[in-house]
Amino acid sequence: MPNENQSLTNKSIQVTCAIIEDSSGNVLVTQRSAAMSLPHKWEFPGGKIETGETEEESIVREIGEELNIEISIIRKLESVTHAYPSFTIQLIPFICGLKNGEINLTEHQAFNWLNPNDLLSLNLADADIPVVEQYLVTRSE
Question: Taking 60 as the threshold, does the pLDDT of residue 1 lie above it?
Fold first, then answer.
């Protein structure tokens, strides 16, 4: 059970993420750098929603800033809430297509295009695991 100090410091953030599919059905994942929180974990790229921004505007902007590519939103999945020790994240996933551009990492240390069935074998950020599971279910429907 958290003590009072823990509950006061546990901030909540809203973050969008993109499950970017390529034309062959593979999915883009990025690896967090050593300087980021959750170092070396794999995740779907994205970031915090800025004030006055819609979820859709946020994911398009974040992917442009972090990866230097343009995406098109295909559909939104259900958001996932996960409590880490120092913060709680509401992760808002979007299935997206790659419109154009060459990936140029500005924050992450690596990226990979994977068959969706291989996603759960990665050392994923905890909040991304239920997003992967939800994505795999939607693909089989």
Answer: no
